[in-house]
Amino acid sequence: MAAFDFDKIYPRKNTGSVKYDLAPALGLPEDVLPMWVADMDFRSPECVVEAIIERAKHGIFGYSEAPKGYFEALETWYRVRHNWHVQPAWLVKASGVVYAIAQAVRALTEKGDGVLIQEPVYYPFRDVVEKNDRKPVVSELVYKNGAYHVDFDDFERKIRDNNVRLFILCSPHNPVGRVWTKEELERMGDICLRYGVIVASDEIHADFVYPGYRHTVFAAIKQEFEQNSLIFTAPTKTFNLAGLHISNIFIPNPKLREKFQTETSRSGMSQLGIMGMVACQAAYEGGGAWLDALMAYLGDNVAYMRDFLRTRLPELTLIEPEGTYLTWVDFRTLGMTVEELEQFIKFKACLWLDGGTMFGESGAGFQRFNIACPRAILQDAMERLEKACRSRT
Ligand SMILES: Cc1ncc(COP(=O)(O)O)c(C=O)c1O
Fold this sequence. Notes:
Mean pLDDT: 97
CATH architecture of the largest domain: 3-Layer(aba) Sandwich
Bound molecules: pyridoxal-5'-phosphate
Largest sheet: 7 strands, mixed
CATH class of the largest domain: Alpha Beta
Order of helices and strands: HEHHEHEHEEEHEHEHEEHHHEEHEEEH
Number of domains: 2
Structural class: alpha/beta
Radius of gyration: 21 Å
CATH topology of the largest domain: Aspartate Aminotransferase, domain 2
Strand order of the largest sheet: 2-10-9-8-7-3-4
Helix content: 25-40%
Strand content: 5-15%
CATH superfamily of the largest domain: Type I PLP-dependent aspartate aminotransferase-like (Major domain)
Number of helices: 13
Distance between the termini: 43 Å
């Protein structure tokens, strides 16, 4: 038997799961298959579960700091896996990446300032910008020849014309699955330097990269980028720990770091929960082999979906993911309005996906699938979709 059994299905209903337990409240069919929010249907590595149990046995959960060895675990992970050398002083821990991005928006921009995002993109980016009374400035990614690209002229023009102070980069990109090349990152980063725009690089998906591609940490490209960026990382996607709320933000520039920390104190935030830190350390220390096996499994899931769509649902187009466990599928040939497509997916196919327009207007006609699930669940999803599509003809 394989060392890790990703085929095993763990029932998640009635576990307080956002992914599984919100369906009735949202009026979705009881048997809807959730493939939306980005957490996985796999158990975290055993080393994480054991570390949490071990810590729980102590039975005292007072205010806590990171356990001994926490930073070393992160340092080794980023050096070995991403060829990036982090220093202890750079690290600011936070309860989540979105929370920390919101802090960065408040700390590094003023009300009314422009914040650049690249839609279609992870929807909380726009949300935290708007909710903090800053202006989202969108440089759309361009969909051409089956993949998404940056329009660098538009990127520069948008920065120049809109008083942009901060760029929220999604790297690798959710939902379009791009793993930006070093050259692309360098071009974007150089434009930002030229116009004094700070880069908030959300690299939460950095560990999910398929063979043939390589994640480049933005700050590792050159010293000027290191001093002009905040790198948002977390073990929560990689090891399925989202409910433990732990993220690690690296801010090499002391001035930016101080502003960020001041904003954190202003919001009354101090220590984090102990279990998130325990889990984070255990995962980075002992979860490497599990992750490697997971990546092979996810690669096979992508292949399964690709083959299924090609042979049985050729009217739909998979945007080939270079990274992440989220796939972006083009449904536009079905000729439905956004609302019709939503109804079709939820009530005809009985699938719970993320509709494309959540990620920006340019997502119209697309849907995002979370394929981090046992193959049997993915197969069920594809067959539901096929049945629904065939029932239209
Ligand atoms: C790009 C990106 N950033 C951040 C998050 C969420 O991070 P957190 O749960 O730490 O706020 C997600 C989750 O899907 C994501 O895709």
